[in-house]
Fold these 2 entries.
Entry 1:
Amino acid sequence: MPSTALLTDLYELTMAQAYLEAGKQGRAVFSLFVRELPPRRNFLVACGLEPLVRALENFKFGKEELSYLKSLGLFKDWFLDYLEEYRFKGDLYAIPEGRIVFQKEPLLQVEGPLPEVQIVETLVINTLHYSTLVASKAARCYIASGGKTLIDFGLRRAHGPDAGLHGARACYIAGFAGTSNLLAGKEYALPVFGTMAHSFVMVFEEEEEAFRAFAKSFPDRAVLLIDTYDAVEGAKRALKLMREGVKVVGLRIDSGGVEKLSKQVKKIFQESNFGHIKIVVSGGVEERSIQRWLSRGAPIDVFGVGTKVLTSSDAPYLDMAYKLVEYEGRPKVKKSPGKKTFPYKRQVLRHYEGGYMTYDEVLPYREGGMVELVCKDGELVKPLPKVRDIRETFMEDLSRLPPELKSLDRKLKYRVLLV
Amino acid sequence: MPSTALLTDLYELTMAQAYLEAGKQGRAVFSLFVRELPPRRNFLVACGLEPLVRALENFKFGKEELSYLKSLGLFKDWFLDYLEEYRFKGDLYAIPEGRIVFQKEPLLQVEGPLPEVQIVETLVINTLHYSTLVASKAARCYIASGGKTLIDFGLRRAHGPDAGLHGARACYIAGFAGTSNLLAGKEYALPVFGTMAHSFVMVFEEEEEAFRAFAKSFPDRAVLLIDTYDAVEGAKRALKLMREGVKVVGLRIDSGGVEKLSKQVKKIFQESNFGHIKIVVSGGVEERSIQRWLSRGAPIDVFGVGTKVLTSSDAPYLDMAYKLVEYEGRPKVKKSPGKKTFPYKRQVLRHYEGGYMTYDEVLPYREGGMVELVCKDGELVKPLPKVRDIRETFMEDLSRLPPELKSLDRKLKYRVLLV
């Protein structure tokens, strides 16, 4: 991984120089939290800690970075020397990835000498914000899917390659079966899926010829895209091949009219005793379309979910902040209108009743609760969990989420008590 | 730059193997275009070509990538050998970065042997989509700003580091003065800006002490954040320092009530003959707030624009597609409902009247028009322009955009004739 040190707003470094010059190197705690949830979110899924830990390991100012900073004519030589020596040696207190969280809860708290923990602000927000955003949106799709298979197809319209990679990871954590994204498959050992595009069908003179060519190259797992010209005709051509003994595992529909088409196609296959064929739907899919189609009995087995989840299009950002809450053991509070903060390092205790979470308490830190010490003096205190285990954490928390909060609309605001 | 070869949906590779197996290696043309603009966009700004050319140069399957692909058990050995040898050797026809474009216009056309130009689909869309999305949103801010200074502060809530980097570049191209993002400053020689955060003020016992410390470390360019506790009191403290001879160039307000506060603060400074002080505003800023504040006479000099532009929050994606339009010299057309495509490689001719663009024609390709040959057989035909020149291209096009299309609302749909 290349250096992440310049993934930083200039002001982090100007502040750090001024802190050092003013002798402000005491121990500080910053807290990362979401002030209020977007209107269409009842909960969030904490996500992005492992990518952050990786990024912090590579937060090093090398020659190239230092010579650029020197060229700005802003920084003093002793400060550039400080940056050259800089390694993140702070403590990280985090709510583990996969846990369901709410407004004002400290997803991450960073403790260490003030300049050292200030400098990483931009990187910390950038990393945790996006993963949490996507996991929270993907979880809504998972709820809507009622056990059907979800696959992330979002790389192409995600905001850059990094969003594609961490978006795929976040989707998997929130219940998706896998992704079309090969880099995510490789980096996080996620199952990868893929079919064919319309261009594939169009290159051949006849649709049938295209289907045969694809099934020949992938004899055990061909999923055929049937709607390049006419979905019902495409389905009939696929059926013809299957009757000849060609193995086809699924049919994909990527255009409008999904509900009607999926029913028509399924019927054709059922009448021919090929009712086991999987129907895959893609194109603008998100939680509301999934819920609508399934509630109307559309026989869809697999949803290819892309753009709207990887851009979290109905809520493309969270009001996430990284705020100073403690300096040299004293409370720090910001009073700007609408941006009030709460002091001290914090713990979160979750209360349950009848198997469901009922409310959370956010109180001054002590051991034992949702917040765990992850890094001490810049070193991991134990290995981070694998994505598969994080997914289990999410599933457990989801099973304890009150049914009202699983609604795709806002029914209830979960109670978070700041003590 | 690390390999970009796995920034690819699995289906690009399954199709490529099946193409090769079926002998489909003829010359193909794919066209990248936006089907329809989002409701709140009257135009787009073409952006992202240079990052794409860089990414294509690094589209190489190395040992690590190949061993991952082999592990999937999907691909034949001869195909993995093909990938090992793969280098992008196609032709790129593009509308230059910075140009204003509309629905259905071919931002990029990629020509070459079919499997070779299919494989890069995901990377092509991923790269051009985001830059074009942000440049188009940033251009709206530029229009609203009426010559005031705009600075990108969006890295923290951009969707990953790559979005922060290319978002900053896109903003600069669309008229911003610079960015807070150091990596973008370094990579694209963009001017960088920065002030201080609330945490800086909070660390000191007194706000005044914080201001003094910052101004001491940056004697010529201190911008003080005045609203940690109370913006008017903060402004008075800044004024006190200035009266003592401390140099302060600007004051930043980052909370609600910007219109009223900026007027109050400006008045205090004018009455004391420090009316030249710059007022900087940040926090949820986008084109509509800029327009509203300026229309009500808020004396703001600099807008720090962040999250809403780098996530293009009111339109977080474009309906951008990469479609086969020509194979072996023959037209290719998709007929799926709502997704009809037009065949052949295309040129765009723009027509003007009275100095303003009036309509565009998209017609079969010939030289001379907005579409230019950028790469031939994988090699640049001439060096790509610098961001500064791309910005000039944008400014020229903007000066010829009809005033109705500069409205922040949809007044008119620009006419694009497909011939």
Note: Residues 121-145 of chain A form the longest helix (25 residues).
Entry 2:
Amino acid sequence: MRRVAIIGIGMTEFGELWDQSFRDMGIRAGFEALNDAKVTSEQIDALYVGNMSAGRFIEQEHVGALIADYAGFAKNNTPSTRVEAGGASGALAIRDAFLSIASGLHDIVVVGGAEKMTDVSDEEVNAIQSSAADQEWETIFGATYPSLFALMAARHMHEYGTTREMLSSIASKNHKHGSLNPKAQFRREIKPEDVIRSPMISNPLRMLDCAPISDGAAAVVLCPLDIASKFTDNPVEILTTAMASDSLALNQRKSITEMAATKVAVKKAFDRTGLKSSDIDVAEVHDNFTITELMAIEDLGFAPKGQGGKFTMDGNTLVGGQIPINTSGGLKARGDPIGATGVAQVIEIVQQLRGKADKRQVSDAKIGLTHNVGGTGSTVIVHLLGVPK
Amino acid sequence: MRRVAIIGIGMTEFGELWDQSFRDMGIRAGFEALNDAKVTSEQIDALYVGNMSAGRFIEQEHVGALIADYAGFAKNNTPSTRVEAGGASGALAIRDAFLSIASGLHDIVVVGGAEKMTDVSDEEVNAIQSSAADQEWETIFGATYPSLFALMAARHMHEYGTTREMLSSIASKNHKHGSLNPKAQFRREIKPEDVIRSPMISNPLRMLDCAPISDGAAAVVLCPLDIASKFTDNPVEILTTAMASDSLALNQRKSITEMAATKVAVKKAFDRTGLKSSDIDVAEVHDNFTITELMAIEDLGFAPKGQGGKFTMDGNTLVGGQIPINTSGGLKARGDPIGATGVAQVIEIVQQLRGKADKRQVSDAKIGLTHNVGGTGSTVIVHLLGVPK
């Protein structure tokens, strides 16, 4: 396999972008990434697009071709592949693009992730998000996406003594990081008490335990590592991509206080690279709910099982801590435009490894990890990124 | 790049499968392919799933994880990737799986394509099919999928003197082939006069110019060519995969009597392999409408521009003719469950190259081509397959 590097990044601000269409956002993020990589559209061999549900959010399937067209690639007939794995659609697009270069088929490839969520009603958003869970065995009986994660949170509290305060500390920490990120949807701090005072969504999860509904797009440019220096002085290598699945419905799992797919994916990633949890300098993990980050901290090996909450309360996951997590603000504060999220995670790690993360910079960051989840853990994708040696 | 072979095939019958769910169909096709390849689910490194719009047809996104789960792969945490490119989703899944093996990441991979179209109303099917065209610039103004292809047909008639009888001969020929295929949705012959007597859909296209609405699933098993002989005596090699895009909306094209993406994709495929049109022994081309096959015959180089109709009337595309096309019955007679179609095309070519196509066998077939279209030609994927040397 050829080694693959990231040579350009671009993203819109995340938020309720009433004045921008799906097309507008995709184009803006893509052009910013092309400019950052100093490549022109004629040099691009292929596009990969991560998107969960444009079919329902904007009644448009075939968004691979759409983005290729509106970003000006159709005139070169550049192939464009759309992938989907619920909330992990963005990481999946990066994985696919990585393989297309690793195989030798393509040289320079653009990856885009995008979702336009605010053009439909809140009820419809809820139905669409829930369609990443099991329609026949969960959502048809009234289970919603938050209620499935609430089951995991309640069980984690029961088994490990995880507390309301521990969950709150995760939201508070991510807002603190988000306040330092100019592209974050929420750029203000919240206190743990604010979380506890926010409206109940599904016991024990409250509104400020949940990532918001967001519009946004993010893009990266990839090429073989051996030609990366033609385009940039600070390439970041994708050391490996690892992916695992689990049952679609929660009731089929042996445990709902962990995500088995996270454990399998990260083991694959570490086995392939010879790295271990303690080698990671900075990580972006999936925190669509506070409980999701808490489980990720444990399943990725940053803290022992059952200790994710205490580990956070002790400040280990803040910038300056033992393993800074979600320095971007995470899904909670940066925002979660579903298909864009996995790409935005990678962009944050690239900024950290370039040493360009400004006030949220992790000192001497050399190795980063991203962790992107689809459904309730039915798909997990882990990427390891590093400063090339 | 490692060379890649197909070692197993499986598919459901195509049709209105009222008694089978999306899950049922996916499982049946997948198990048939695993049995054909004589592999077990434990040996599978990854799944790739082609599906256009389960989000709208059955209100379920994340169908990669769904298929992995219900086919029994979730217990091994096997990664599963869903891809989408409108009508070309099936071929895209094969392309992605091919690259994952060519890169060296995976060894044995299952590709599945599936669509469950008959659980929603005809009006909804029409809206969903049209969502592969341009929602903002075509369908919102009332254009439907058939009406866009009708524009192409009318213009082709105007520019090249293509006649009603020529279009009818394509439908009639595909039904003749379909009558020989036990898994085809329509296994009866129709006369060209039957097409002319069928109800008008969008002038000049009549009902029997259109592929039906179908349920169905199809699957293939891939592995590196160098280990294929462990599993089968008759592997079929995927010689190359080539893909191209074009504008999403028809009004942005220089010509609507050809598909530029077909021409670009097939040129790539021929350039990479050193093959040419006259080397192809059998082809499955996209015939969602009769005009689509007619243009494909020309754009793939089987007949000069403007001569596709006459070429068909002269019998060149029948089994026994110069270049048998759609020996399976094509989308028209075998059926068109969108995400399954590109996989079913490849299965037909595998059967031909294995010499197992029974009454529709093309004698001494060694090289085959598949041509799968998304939208009105905004995505085209061409695969070349061959008996390995």
Note: The domain at 142-211+237-386 of chain B is CATH 3.40.47.10 (Peroxisomal Thiolase; Chain A, domain 1).
